[in-house]
Structures are given as C-alpha cells and as structure tokens.
Amino acid sequence: KTAGGLTAWAAAWLVSYSPAAAPATTSTSAPAAAPAAPVTPSRAPIGQAVVKSSQLNLRSGPGTTYPTVGQVAAGTSLAVLAVKGDWLEVRSASGGSAWVAGWLVSYVPASIPGPAASPSAGAPAAEPEPSRGESPRAEEPQPDQEPAQLPAPVPVEGRLLDIAEIVAGNVQVITVKLSGATEYQGSERPDGYTLLLKGIRSSGFEGQMSLNGLGATRIEVSQQEPEASGEGATGYAALPSTTLSLDAQGRCVYGLVPADGGKQLKLFIKTDIGARTSGRVRVVLDAGHGGKDTGAIGPSGVYEKDINLPITLEVGRILEGEGVEVTYTRSDDTYLTLSERSQVANAIAADVFVSVHCNGSTDRSKEGTSVYWYAPADNALLAAQEFDRCKLAGFIQEALLQALGRTDKGVRTANFAVLRETTMPSALVETLFLSHPLEEQLLAMPETQSTAAAAIARGILDYLRWAGRK
C-alpha cells in the first residue's frame, strides 16, 4: 500500500520483505517446546515451484552460505511460502521449511487478483549492466533468463556463403555463414547430424566435404527445390532449401547456437562429454576485456580491464602452487574477441574455464558479488554439464562472499558468449560493482584484489575436490 492509500505491486527481488508478526496469544498451559521449523502447517503457500536442476539443495536460509538440510530431484513440486531476493522459502516433506535458489526452479505464483501477474522469482529483471561482450556499455542479457528468441525471419531467398571448421582437441565447431537470417532445423541421427536451412540456396557448395575432427568426418550439402510453385505459393514453401548432412563416428554430443543475428549458425560437436578423471588438471583463466575494450569504468575513472588482470594472474599463481596447469587467455593489456577466448579453452580440452570481471550499472547504488553459469536444456552439450557448471559457480560465489563480505547478488544464469561457447564447466565472476563508489575504491586496492583472487582460487579448488580431480 502506497503513502497515498493506493494498492500497487513491487518486484519481490528489489525489496527486503519482513512478514508482520503474528498476534500474541495467551495460554494457561505449560510452554510448548520450540517448533522444529519456523513454518507451521497452517501457513498458506503463495505459489508453486518445480525443480529444474537434476538435484537441488535445500538450505536452512536464503543464501549459499547456509548449510544444506536436504535435496530434492528434478521435477519435484514445492509449495512456496515466501520470497526473499533470489531465494524461495518452500515447505519441506517434514512440514517445516527450507530455502531453494529461485534460478533453479520454475516459480508460478498463486492466482491473486491484481493488475498484473507476478514475475518469476527465478528471473529477476535487472537494469542492463555492462556487457560481457564487445562493447563496454552494451546491454547484457537479463540475469537468470533464457535468451530471447530471435524474431522470426521474413521468408526471403538467401545464399549459403561459407562452411568453416575449427578443431580444438575433441571439439569441432562447424560455422555456417548465410547471407541473411532464416528458419533452420537441426536434428540428431544415430550416425550424425542434419541441419535444414529454409529459403537458402547452396550456391555451389553441393557435394561432399571432408572434415578433420574426431567426431564428424564428412559433410554433404544438397539443395532441395521449392515444395510449392505457382502464383499461390508463399513463404518458405515457395523457396529452395539446403540440407547439411554430417556423418559422425563414436559418441557425439551436439549444440547448435545462432550468432550474428542469425546470419551464422555454429554447430559444436564434442566426441566425449565425460570429464577426464586422471592426469594434471587444466584450468583456463580469462581476464575480462583488455586492449581497446576497457569494460566498465568507475566513477573516478578506474578501468575494469585493469582490475580483472591482476586478480586473474593471482588466481593462476595460487592454482599453479596447488599443481594445477593454468593457461591465460591474456596475461597483458591485449584485446581478444569472445570467440578467441573460448577457443583457448576448447583447444587444450581444459577441465575448467573461469572468466573474471567487475560488475557495473547506471544505478550507482547497486553493489555486491555474483557468479554466472549457463547450461540451457536445448543445447545437449551444455545441458549435460548443468550440475557441474552450477556447482562451479556456487563454490566460487560462496568463497567470495566469505572473503569480501559484500552483498550476495546470487549465483545466476545468463547467455554470455564465453559460457555458451566453452565446452567444459565454465563460470563468469562479477567480483564487485565498479560503478559503486565504495566498491570501486575497494577494487582499486591491491589487498582487495589479492583477497578476491584467493577466494576465486579456493572456489575452483573446492569444485575440483568435489569433482574428484584433487
């Protein structure tokens, strides 16, 4: 209720919510024992949450620093009792309460009459913050949301411009370049993969091409004439189409990713999704931005790229002291594209990839620490790593919160290129907000940089121990 007496709605993740205390009651009976949990069976749920991750931790409080009190499996439906930031309080099987991460469930609020539907607690809308992409001030994807679908392309005849292959260890990347965005359909076969490009002419690419990777060994390109003709033919049915048929050997996992507004399609092929269980652990560390790309710029002019690099180098020094083989995407003030950063990790079949950043916002009051991961269900290669990617991000976030003591912005998901195009468990760290005056001062201090680096290294090592690699 507003000061003027009107009723309005507020986003739950942007406020601190404290329920009103229950009315005091008197009783002549002896005092009852303290309840095992703060929730009584009579407490009415405010919605339902369905578990999305393969296994979800139940915690005693709203944050990764609270101890785990149980676990529930994917598909489990939980009654939601309260919302606090990115966390949901749910009713446990015993009738008590526990807390779950909102970004790992699908939350549907109970039907309440009102002017608008309540948004998902697992997808808090945030003001755009500095990009993890090419432009230092470009908008990034909304945290905890799947990327928006590209708009449906208008059926216009296009051409196949190029087919390129990059081989990085047991990973192949087949890049298909088109003259314009079009509808496409990818499907797996027992012996390979088929990609249908609607409205696209093959433009001289018909025939077979040999590939050099361990998975797909050959690609055949063929053009199909329009399904319909004449004055009444419309849409893609009136246009030619091109089919790319890949023959593969062994056990392959595929992930198809559009790029450049749909003008490129990148097919990632990995011959074995199982992590190496022996040999020296390989970690690739990525200092965000660099060179002409400054990243975020603090109120007093501190460049994000100049904070990311010393933190990253110190993380590597600590890991090397623990026997980890470390590779850097950059070790000086060098500019790299996002694809080049991912290729460094893919080329050496790294076990872990971690990208180090500072956060930023046009709202200078925003502060705190967050770590991102990404494993969409429609990308089989990344979905197979969902639990590992979430665990890696969680271990790093927990270590950073304990070390820096700043606001917990949560473990979140976002469609960042370096998370989308790396083929091993990956995480993107946002240490603190460079746009926040106090946190800018902290980030500029070598002591804070060393503290953050030690925490990130500890989070990586905790993950490796959990994964049985240390």
Descriptive overview:
The chain has seven helices and 23 strands. The chain has helices spanning 304-321, 338-347, 380-383, 386-404, 417-420, 437-443, 446-466, and strands at 47-51, 55-59, 68-73, 77-84, 87-91, 97-101, 105-109, 158-168, 171-178, 184-189, 192-198, 200-201, 207-210, 216-224, 241-248, 253-259, 264-270, 282-287, 325-328, 352-359, 369-373, 408-413, 426-433. The protein has a six-stranded mixed sheet with strand order 19-18-20-23-21-22, with helices on both faces. It has a five-stranded antiparallel sheet with strand order 6-5-4-1-7, with no helix packed on it. Strands 12-8-9-17-16 form a five-stranded mixed sheet. Helix 1 packs across helix 7 and helix 4 (386-404) runs antiparallel to helix 7. The longest helix has 21 residues, at 446-466. The radius of gyration is 25 Å and the shape is globular.
* Low-pLDDT windows of residues: 21-41, 111-131, 133-149
Mean pLDDT across every amino acid position = 81
Largest sheet: 6 strands, mixed
- Rg of Cα set: 25 Å
Q: How do the helices and strands follow one another from N- to C-terminus? A: EEEEEEEEEEEEEEEEEEHEHEEHHEHEHH
* Number of H- or I-type helical stretches: 7
Helix content: 10-25%
Strand line-up in the sheet with most strands: 19-18-20-23-21-22
Shape: globular
Span between termini: 54 Å
- Strand percent estimate: 25-35%
Please state the structural category.
Answer: alpha+beta
Please give the number of β-strands. 23
